[in-house]
Design goal:
zinc ion binding, DHMBA_Reg_Transcription_Factor, CD2-Gal4, Zn(2)-C6 fungal-type domain-containing protein, mainly alpha, 23 helices, 4 strands, two-stranded antiparallel sheet
Length: 585
């Protein structure tokens, strides 16, 4: 495999036009200027070496012909290489099998067939895509008994894995890899698998016997993931919601039977978060049958663990927030009253967070690249970050509804709210939204790999309790009660790995950070009012990083929407003193 020099890493358009490519993401400047699609960049290392196996084989065959002529043999260029056939009775059979076999041994100096020299050295593209998907989306349970897609690995290892499950997983993982590598060929293969999986899923839904299988439910969920990865706009959001609604129908069909298997319970626990997210983004209702199933699930499985009370209260709160978003008939006074009550309830839910789920805050002495603000957070587990950001995102949406209803009430004649009280509420809402947005920004460095997650220590084995027959125990008086010691710190935030590094430094394929859970919180941060200077552009840049890191187009589409907000007249009016600020005294 000889070195062929240093080829150009630029995109195809720049190479064809013979201009310098700056290789920016998501598109190079030259392609943007001429309004062409940038198809990505080439890997320099993979192009520096060429596979010369066929050339070497041909050269060896010619050399063999020359040697044969010198020895007076007739050249046979296309003949099979000289071999010895070992008879079946003389071949050793270590396995003890009585089946006759024939072994072929190549004579020393004879050229071997080219097929032996040109075996593929890389795994199939489907395996590469599955590895990429697991490296970014499969999270194993740790301090919190919640995982993400960890059940897929168990199902795909089985010998009886159904084709419907394999095709749907292939479709989603290939689409993700295609986005990451910007490969049209891989995306074409993803579309083929998507079409096959969709056809098999539709056939499975026609019979109740196949519709209630885990493979059918997971297939529908993975087809929804595919829609996320090829996200193009609002139509893609509706397509994603359609798959989510289909999965909800399957869950309602199975009822509590779904909880009888460990796989079914884990799928439901993970997917219910997706149901809440879709309901929030599309202002649609949560199916009543599925919400009732969730209530039944809270008394089963591993909901009876640390943080159970907080998790249940937060999900129920999200139910109420979704209902408030959907309410289009109530008057502004009723809506404002309900919103303020929910905001107070959110404070009480926050107080239930377990101590071990709290985060450390590291303050910066000077501004840092890729960090918005003067601090960042360190959490113990990606799932804990997700739950905290869920709480913050809900608060952003809640205060948006509150402020919209206050404005609507002020437009009435006479106004429905006293002006002085309205001003105080606007100020309180601005403080709450600013704090929530700042906390989402502070959680971003760890999720994007700038800061490591702590290596949690193993729990020590419990000490054996003394028996009642022990003489020292029976003779000693009971010790006086003492206050429990404060919980020890599980990690030191001053360690070097908790200092800021470049994005992606601590991305570990065996321990994904859950970056996909950051997409909609960043989108919410970029559009809340009043937006601080530079925050929307910072959110756009982070969404671009997420898109290429985890192979999904969804952040790119949301970033484009934020760009439109950034360039709109309404945003410039807010920055000049409009919006909430204009209502202050």
């Amino acid at each position: 495999m000889p070195n062929v020099g240093k080829p150009s890493k630029g995109c195809k358009n720049c190479r064809d036009r013979k201009v310098k490519c700056d290789m920016k993401r998501p598109s190079c400047s030259q392609c943007i200027r001429v309004q062409k699609i940038c198809h990505g960049y080439r890997d320099e290392l993979s192009m520096m070496f060429k596979n010369e196996s066929d050339f070497v084989v041909t050269k060896a065959q010619k050399r063999y012909e020359q040697l044969a002529k010198q020895r007076g043999q007739e050249p046979t260029r296309k003949s099979r290489p000289a071999t010895w056939e070992i008879p079946p009775d003389s071949a050793s059979d270590s396995s003890g099998s009585s089946t006759p076999t024939t072994q072929t041994v190549f004579r020393s100096g004879s050229p071997a067939p080219s097929s032996i020299l040109t075996r593929p050295m890389t795994p199939p593209i489907e395996d590469q895509a599955l590895g990429f998907f697991f490296a970014n989306y499969k999270i194993e349970p740790s301090i919190v008994p919640r995982g993400q897609f960890e059940f897929l690995a168990e199902l795909l290892k089985r010998n009886d894995t159904e084709r419907i499950l394999q095709s749907s997983v292939n479709a989603a993982s290939l689409a993700s890899l295609a986005n990451n590598t910007k490969s049209p060929l891989v995306m074409k293969r993803a579309r083929e698998e998507y079409g096959a999986a969709l056809a098999m899923t539709n056939r499975a839904l026609k019979s109740r016997n196949t519709a209630v299988k885990d493979s059918t439910l997971i297939s529908v969920i993975m087809l929804g993931m595919y829609e996320n990865f090829v996200y193009e706009g609002k139509d893609s959001l509706q397509a994603w919601a359609k798959h989510v609604n289909g999965a909800c129908a399957l869950i309602a069909l199975r009822g509590t039977e779904l909880f009888q298997s460990n796989i079914g319970m884990r799928v439901f626990q993970q997917f219910y978060g997706t149901i809440l997210l879709v309901a929030t983004q599309t202002n649609s209702a949560i199916p009543e049958a599925v919400a009732q199933l969730w209530e039944k699930a809270t008394s089963a499985g591993d909901y009876r663990v640390q943080g159970r009370q907080w998790t249940i209260r937060l999900v129920r709160f999200m139910h109420n927030a979704v209902q408030l978003n959907q309410d289009k008939s109530s008057d502004p006074v009723t809506m404002v009253t309900r919103a303020i009550q929910l905001d107070h309830e959110l404070d009480s839910i926050k107080a239930l967070i377990p101590k071990v789920w709290q985060y450390e805050t590291v303050y910066l002495e000077q501004p840092a690249e890729y960090v918005y603000g003067n601090s960042y957070h360190i959490y113990l587990d990606p799932w804990i970050v997700q739950m905290w950001n869920n709480l913050r995102s809900i608060r952003l949406r809640l205060h948006k509804v509150l402020c919209d209803q206050l404005r609507k009430g002020l437009e009435q004649d006479p106004p429905l709210f006293p002006l002085q009280e309205t001003q105080r509420q606007f100020q309180a809402s601005e403080q709450a939204t600013t704090k929530s947005a700042a906390d989402i920004c502070a959680s971003t460095p760890q999720l994007t790999g700038q800061v490591a997650f702590p290596d949690l220590p193993r729990r020590p084995p419990p000490k054996p309790s003394p028996t009642s027959s022990s003489p020292s125990t029976s003779a000693s008086a009971p010790a006086p009660a003492s206050p429990p010691p404060p919980p020890p710190r599980l990690f030191d935030p001053q360690q070097p790995k908790f200092k800021l590094h470049s994005p992606g430094t601590f991305i570990n394929p065996s321990r994904p950070t859950g970056m996909h859970h950051l997409i909609f919180p960043l989108y919410a941060v970029g559009q809340y009012e009043p937006v601080p200077p530079g925050l929307t552009q910072w959110a756009i840049d982070r969404l671009h990083f997420l898109a290429f890191a985890i192979g999904t187009r969804q952040p790119l589409v949301l970033a484009e929407e934020l760009k439109q907000i950034l360039n709109s007249e309404s945003v410039s009016e807010v920055s000049e003193g409009g919006g909430l600020s204009s209502l202050k005294a």
